[in-house]
Write a structure and sequence with these properties.
Blueprint: H1 10-42, E1 65-70, E2 74-79, E3 83-88, E4 94-99
Antiparallel strand pairs: 1-2, 2-3, 3-4
Length: about 100
């Protein structure tokens, strides 16, 4: 008995060679696109203004900051006593206090 596998036809080999070539080209194009997107994403945008912050913000007595977020010309501080304090970005003065209801 002969245990050798049947021979592979030349047409099948040509198909496999083309398939590997297409896969290689697709992978190269994909890597180039990913690198280009990373370069575009992380390159500096000169139009973006740097974030300006006041030197300090004074919270009311007994409050503790839990989170801070920035808007166009304001800074919001979420405190541990369930309030949101809105401060002016330039002068760091309190504009508004909002109670959070649970």
């Amino acid at each position: 008995m002969d245990d050798s596998p049947p021979p592979v036809s030349p047409a099948t080999l040509k198909f496999l060679a083309r398939l590997v070539t297409v896969l290689t080209a697709t992978m190269i194009v994909g890597v180039v696109v990913i690198v280009a997107l990373l370069v575009i994403r992380f390159s500096g945008d000169e139009r973006t203004q740097p974030l300006t912050l006041p030197d300090s913000i004074t919270l009311p007595a007994g409050t503790r900051a839990e989170a801070v977020t920035f808007g166009g010309d304001w800074i919001a501080v979420v405190t541990g006593d369930d309030r949101i304090l809105i401060y002016d970005r330039e002068t760091a003065t309190l504009r508004q206090a909002v109670d959070i209801f649970r």
